[in-house]
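Extended Data, panel c. Modelled sequence:
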Amino acid sequence: MHRCLTAILGAIAFLPLLSSSALARQPFIDEVRLGFFEHDSAIIGTRKEKGIDFAFEILSEPLVRSRLLGLPRIVLGGALNSAGQTDQIYLGFDGQWTLARAIFSRRDAVYFEATTGGGWNDGKIDAVGTPLEATWKSHGSHFLIRSGASLGYRFNTRWSLAFAFNHISNAGLAHRNEGMNDLGLLLGLKL
């Protein structure tokens, strides 16, 4: 719990610095996000692991300008679990499609986003038949496929808030494959 609290407080203290005019724009980084998720949500599947995940993401500038692909970007992120259970780091592609513009102001919008990629976790590979079986997922591998979807609202050209769902699993490529779902919020800041 202590390491998660330290990470959360550090990230919260760091976020205002990103929005200051003193920050020089990085050529590759387009957006940073902070998130809070229900770890191993029971919305789909069975919940075994507990806690809240604190997430941090960095998104690249769009790789190409394509409406079909949703302005694809590279996403690099991580999720730290408050209960000391499965933590994750991930890398993948993110596509974002604007659904509606100028709802409450000239610069706001509603968008849909989808992500896919891979990741590494420090969870259990096989807890079946051990005392940990009731409280840990058996991921089958430390390297997993990660996918997600979110529905978000852009307040203006810089700030956004999204309701997000993420899933990790090995897609049946290993003996054990207890997937895990996270459900929560992501606050985004375009640099």
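Residues 18-23 have pLDDT under 50 and may be disordered. This feature is highlighted in the accompanying rendering.
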